[in-house]
Design brief:
This protein has 23 helices and 23 strands. The chain is an alpha/beta fold. The chain folds into four domains: 210 residues, Thiamin diphosphate (ThDP)-binding fold, Pyr/PP domains (Rossmann fold), CATH 3.40.50.970; 112 residues, Rossmann fold (3-Layer(aba) Sandwich); 180 residues, Thiamin diphosphate (ThDP)-binding fold, Pyr/PP domains (Rossmann fold), CATH 3.40.50.970; 57 residues, Alpha-Beta Plaits (2-Layer Sandwich). Strands 3-2-4-5-7-6-12 form a seven-stranded mixed β-sheet. A five-stranded mixed β-sheet has the order 9-11-10-13-14, with helices on both faces. α17 links the parallel β15 and β16. α1 packs parallel to α7. The radius of gyration is 27 Å and the shape is globular. The chain binds iron/sulfur cluster (2 copies). One iron/sulfur cluster binds next to α23.
């Protein structure tokens, strides 16, 4: 049977079909939908699925489950692999018992912010096999294969995808679920599971190297395909495969190709054999020249002179995902021919006309709008210029405070980094106040150690934790601070109590829908010597509305409105529309208003009123 599935949904299906019993991860675009798809089925499947507090913790949970004999998988985006790598590099040395798969999705072309990191290098660094997914069908098939390989070699296997596969749907042939139901059992073996002795460590390293070779033998003929047809050749891997195939079929190209499905270790012998028949080669892989450099090494050692096109000669870019157009262009360079364009320029022109460019803004009623407005006003109240006060930003919805009209945040580095960076600015000698802003999920993920450091080092800074109770940016996943939900999340970890436990003494809680009080409290916190924490607490407006916590909507009184647009320019709420009319113009609040009341507070004419009984 076939189903229309995105790459991530196909991975979820592969997890079910493989008999996996423990699934962990941290939400991160472009990998989120694997757990998102599985979570509602957890009870029916009778397996453990969780959003863990961060990727390192998720990896450790999956590992111990595998050490106890179960099949387990951990999912993450590329930046998450940086967090998980500290544990994973050690785990890989120890190997595993039940199949252990690490699913990571890279984002060439930056569909969701953050770096264009090429995670293939982690497989090399960690000494673990990595399968590279090139289609939605492989997203399912390679999960099963990865578990099979992992159990045969007794070591973890990386499974890497990219956003253009994980987020795009295609027909996928699905199979049947294997129910393993293994007994959990773990035997003490300190030479395998600990690393205090150099000899144990080096033996474990040797085991990892041996496992790499075994993995290569198992999968070679199953994931690496060769087609020989002449002296022009293409080595292709990952997401570039689909567009390459389309170009070959569309233009009826006569060339040889080698499709690589395992990128660590690379199939050296197969590449060597392939190169024997090739005079001119194109290496098609997104991001870094990971395969291309190795192909150059293999060709050099084999003594065969081949003209190699790729990143090193500038034929292809190290940035972005490869469109059909770019792949076609690189094939033209390889074959020295002009391939006909079938694009309809009229359609492209029309598409460009229809494109609407909108700044990324907070959602209607978002409490972060109130927090950033209050931060800016507090800075002004203390008679500082906004351009003089450094406000570090963090990952998630909260970083939208860098955009107009607030333009509050100055930096974005990594989960939790706002609090560490703020400390560095102070120790560098910035005398004026420094503020750090961070969301609740990000705080739980990686904000606690830098808070403890700030308290311990007694640095003077203000940390604003924007606690909307959800991991909202990636699709409203729960986190330890989410309000208690009957089935999945019975208790809430209170951020205020966590901050107290970290030693913070000056902690205030504000409601960002109450602007005046919020401005006063933030101003006081900025003036406090040492670490001050302000928890700005109000549930994400969209989740709140979904849970039927509705607030009265608002309207503009046309008799009072002067058309000054202060409300719009200070808050940029998408529920507001300005109608230029006569000289004055008129502001309108549409029915999508979420009733946060912020615009009512900022209107100098008191022209915005609550619609009584309207929710
Ligand atoms: S701030 Fe008040 S007076 Fe000015 S446009 Fe908005 S509703 Fe009208
Ligand atoms: S009350 Fe005002 S600021 Fe809040 S959602 Fe409605 S229109 Fe937007």
């Amino acid at each position: 049977m076939k189903k229309l599935l995105t790459g991530n949904e196909a991975v979820a299906e592969g997890i079910i079909e493989s008999g996996t019993e423990v699934v962990c991860g941290y939400p991160g675009t472009p990998s989120t939908e694997v757990i998102q798809t599985l979570l509602p089925k957890a009870k029916e499947l009778g397996i453990h699925i969780e959003w863990s507090v961060n990727e390192k913790v998720a990896s450790e949970i999956a590992t111990a489950a595998s050490w106890a004999g179960k099949r387990a998988i951990v999912t993450m985006k590329m930046s998450g692999l940086n967090v998980a790598s500290d544990s994973l590099c050690s785990i890989i040395y120890s190997g595993c018992r039940g199949g252990l798969v690490i699913y990571v999705v890279d984002d060439p072309g930056v569909s969701a912010g953050m770096v264009e990191q090429d995670s293939r290098y982690y497989a090399k660094l960690g000494v673990a096999p990595m399968l590279d997914i090139s289609s939605q069908q492989e997203s399912l098939d390679f999960v099963k294969l990865a578990f099979e390989v992992s159990e045969k070699i007794k070591g973890p296997v990386f499974l890497r995808s990219t956003a253009s596969i994980s987020h795009v749907a295609s027909d996928v042939k699905i199979g049947k679920r294997v129910e393993l139901k293994r007994e959990a059992h773990f035997e003490r073996d300190i030479s395998k599971y600990t690393k205090p002795k150099a000899s144990w460590c080096m033996n474990q390293h040797q085991d990892s190297l041996t496992r790499l070779n075994e993995a290569s033998k198992i999968v070679d003929s199953r994931v690496n395909q060769v087609h020989l047809e002449g002296k022009y050749g293409v080595i292709v891997s990952g997401a570039a495969w689909e567009n390459f195939q389309e170009a070959v079929n569309r233009y009826n190209l006569k060339l040889s190709w080698l499709k690589i499905g395992i990128v660590n270790p690379l199939p050296d012998e197969k590449i060597k054999e392939f190169l024997k028949d090739i005079d001119k080669l194109l290496v098609l892989e997104e991001l870094e020249p990971f395969i291309e450099a190795e192909v150059m090494r293999i060709s050099f050692l084999s003594g065969k002179k081949i003209d190699i096109l790729g990143k090193f000669d500038g034929t292809l870019s190290m940035m972005g995902s490869y469109s059909f157009k770019e792949i076609k262009k690189s094939l033209e360079a390889l074959l020295k021919v002009k391939l006909e364009s079938e694009q309809n320029s009229e359609i492209i022109k029309r598409a460009e006309e229809l494109e609407v460019k909108r700044p990324t803004s907070f959602c209607i009623g978002c409490p972060h709008r109130g927090t950033y407005y209050a931060i800016n006003k507090a800075i002004k109240k203390l008679k500082y210029k906004k351009k003089d006060i450094i406000v570090t930003g963090d990952i998630g919805c909260t970083i939208l405070g860098m955009n107009k009209p607030f333009e509050t945040c100055w930096t974005e580095v990594a989960m939790g980094a706002s609090i560490g960076l703020a400390q560095g600015f102070k120790w560098a000698g910035i005398e004026k106040p420094v503020l750090a802003t961070i969301g609740d999920s990000t705080f739980f993920h990686a904000g606690i150690p830098p808070l403890i450091n700030a308290v311990y080092q007694n640095v003077s800074l203000t940390i604003i934790i924007l606690d909307n109770g959800w991991t909202a940016m990636t699709g409203f996943q729960e986190n330890p601070g989410t309000i208690p939900l009957k089935d999945t999340n019975p208790m809430r970890i209170d951020i205020v109590e966590v901050c107290k436990g970290c030693g913070a003494k000056d902690i205030s809680v504000i409601d960002p829908y109450h602007l005046k009080e919020s401005i006063d409290v933030i101003a006081e916190a900025i003036e406090h010597p040492g670490v001050s924490v302000v928890v700005s607490r109000r549930e994400c407006a969209l989740q709140s509305r979904r849970r039927k916590v509705n607030l009265p909507k608002l309207k503009v009184n046309p008799d009072k409105c002067t058309g000054c647009r202060v409300c719009l320019s200070s808050l940029a709420c998408p529920a507001m529309i300005f109608h230029p009319k006569d000289k004055k113009g008129l502001m309108e609040i549409t029915s999508s208003c979420n009733g946060c009341g912020l615009c009512k507070d900022v209107c100098p004419e008191e022209a915005i009123e609550v619609i009584k009984d309207a929710v």
